[in-house]
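P.,

For your records, the input lines for the assembly:
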Amino acid sequence: MVYVAPALLFVAVFVLWPLGHLIWLSFTAKSLMSGPDDAVAFVGFDNYARAFGDKNFWRAMTFTLTYTAYITPILLVLNLALALLVSKNTPLRRVTRTVVFLPVVIGLASSSLLWYWLFDQQVGLFNRLLVDMGVLSEPLVWFKKATTGQFAVIISVVWKVVGFGMILMVAGIQAVGNDVIEAAMIDGASAWKRVRRIIIPLAMRSIVLATLISAIGSMLAFDQFYLMSGGGPRGQTFTTVYWIYQSSFVRFELGYGAAQAVLLMIVITSGTAMQLWLSRKGQK
Amino acid sequence: MTDAAAPLRRPRVRRGEYLAGAICVAVIAIMLWPLVMSAFASFKSPAEAASVPPTYLPHSFSFDNYREILTYHAGLFSYVWNSLSVAGLTILFCLALSVPAGYALARFPLPGKEVIFLILLASMMLPFQALLIPLYLLLNDLGLMASKPGLAVLHTILQLPFSIYLMRNSFEAIPKEMEEAAVVDGASSFFALRRIFLPLVAPGVVTVALFAFITSWNEFIGALILMNHEDSFTVPVMMTGVMTGNFGAINWGGLQASVIISILPCLIVYLLLQRYYISGLLSGAVK
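C-alpha cells returned:
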C-alpha cells in the first residue's frame, strides 16, 4: 500500500480535487482578477444558462464538432491505407513506417508553426508548390476564410498525426497472422476481399481505438488553431478549448470558463462511452 | 491452388510489389518534404527567408537565423534550459510515482486493487485541458506559477496514467519465481524492488522516461498559461514570440530556425530509442 500511496495522493490532489473545484467554480462568478480572500459570489446555474444562450460558445462547439467530423474519417481512411501498404516487414516498408511516424513525435506547436509558414500567401512554399504544379493559379490566402483555414489546419494535422493511427493498425494487422491470410489466398480470395473480409474485421479493435483517440484529440483541439488561424477570421475558427481559454484567461471569467469546461467534458465523455458501446455491440 | 495458376500469378505479384514500392517512396517524399523545406529555410539568409516568392533551395548558406534566435530576449539557451529542466522534472516525477505504484499493483494482493488501478487510469479519461482552470488556481495557491516544478506537475498529470499502466505491465511480465526466491532468502520487498526488479524493468523505465520527455518538451497550452514570465517560457511558447517578431512583421527565418531547434531533440531521441517508443505505444494502447 505504501507503494501506491504517492500516486494516489498525486491523483487526489492534482486531478480529483481540481475536478471537484472545477464543478464548484462553474456555479460561481469567480474572476481571475479577484484576490484569494475576496468573497466569490455563488450564482447557481447562471453560467450554464449563459453558455446555452452564448452564440460564441455554440459556434465554437459546432466548429469543433465539424472539425472532428471532417478529420476523423480522413484519418481513418489514410491510417488504414498506409497500414495496409506498410504492414509487411520489408526494409523499404520499415523505413516508410519510421518516416510516416516521425511527425508524431514532434510537437503540435512546432508542426503548426511549420505549416503556418508553408501556407503563407507570400513566403509559403506549399502555396508556391501548388501554383507550380498548376493546382492554384495564384497563392491562396488560406486563413482569410474559415473554410480554407480549417482545411489548411486539417492538412497540417493529418501530416502530423497520421503515423500514430497507422502504427496501431499495423500492429492490429500483423496480429492477424500470416497463416490466416495465406489460407485465404489459397482459397482464391482476391486482395480486396482479403482486406475487407479478413483483415479489417480481425483488426477492428485497433481501428476503433485509433479512431477514438484521434476523435478525442480533435475535440480538444487548441494549439493548431491558436497558432495558425488565431480563431479568425471574425472568430469563426475558435474551438471549444480555445473559447474556454479565451473566456478564462483572456477575459478572466473563470467561473464561466469552468461551466463551459464541464459541458465539454460531458460531451467528450458521453461521446467516448457511446463509441465504445457501439463498437462492443458491433463485435457481438 | 492449381499448378497452372502459379506461373501466371508470379508477374502480377511482382508488378504489385513494384507499385507498392513506388507508393512507399512517394509517401516518404511527401512526409519529409515539410521538414526538409523548413530545415533549408532555417539556413537561408534572413532576407532570402522573407523573399517573395519563396525559394525552394537556399541560394546561400547562413547561420544568421540561428544567431538571431540565440540572442532572442532571454536567449535561446535559457529557453532550451527551461524546457529541458521541466522535462527532466517530469521524468523524475513520473518515475518516482509510477515505479512503486506499478510494482505494488502487479505484485501485491492489495484489497481493492482493481479499483485503485481504475481510479489511476480514469484520470487519463478526464481531458486535461478542461481541468486547466482549477489547476491554474491550485498551482497559484501553492506558489508554483511560472515555475519549473509547477509546469512539471502539470505534465506529470498528463503522463502519469500511461506511466503507471506501463510499469504495471512491466512488473507483471516478470516470472513470480524470481520474487519468491528473493523472499525465501529473506529480502524485504523494498530490497527486492531495488535489486531484483529494477534491472528487469529497465526497458519499461526507459519507455516511461522517453514518453515523459516528449510530452513535456512539446506541451503547449499548459506552458502558455502557466509560464507567464518572459524568462520562464519553454521552447514552444518562445516560438510564438519569435513569430511575432519585434515590429509585428513575422521573422520567417528565425521562426523556421526555432521550429528546427524544437523538433531536433524529439527526432534524435525517437530515432535512437524507436524500439522502446513503438513497443510502449502499443502496450499502452492495446489493452
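Two observations worth noting. Chain B touches chain A through 87 residues (CB under 8 Å). Chain B has two domains: 5-62, 67-285.

Regards
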